[in-house]
Here is the input.
Amino acid sequence: MWKPAEKKCKLRSDAPVRLSKAEILQRQLFVLLKGACQVCEQFKPLDVPHHAVYGIGVKDDRSLVNICLDCHRFIHGFGGYSKLDKTREEIEAIGWANNEEYLCE
Ligand SMILES: [Zn+2]
Ligand SMILES: [Zn+2]
Here is the structure.
């Protein structure tokens, strides 16, 4: 008999947060002002900040990370995290640190 595959989702105790457009814009500006890419730590042309916590049903608008065009291209495309200096977990930690910094300003 056919049985659906067991779902192994990593559930966070706190549900992902989606914010208003205005709030996201403010947060994007906040991380952009850091200047350097927070993944490769170089001053390269920046992209729209990356959601460190992303994926179906888990994208969290609080987890924005300042990112350059090159790093962003790797994250979402060919090469993936293997091309970067940091792991997905490390980048997520940066996103959460940015969130705390933003809220404490
Ligand atoms: Zn970079
Ligand atoms: Zn991204």
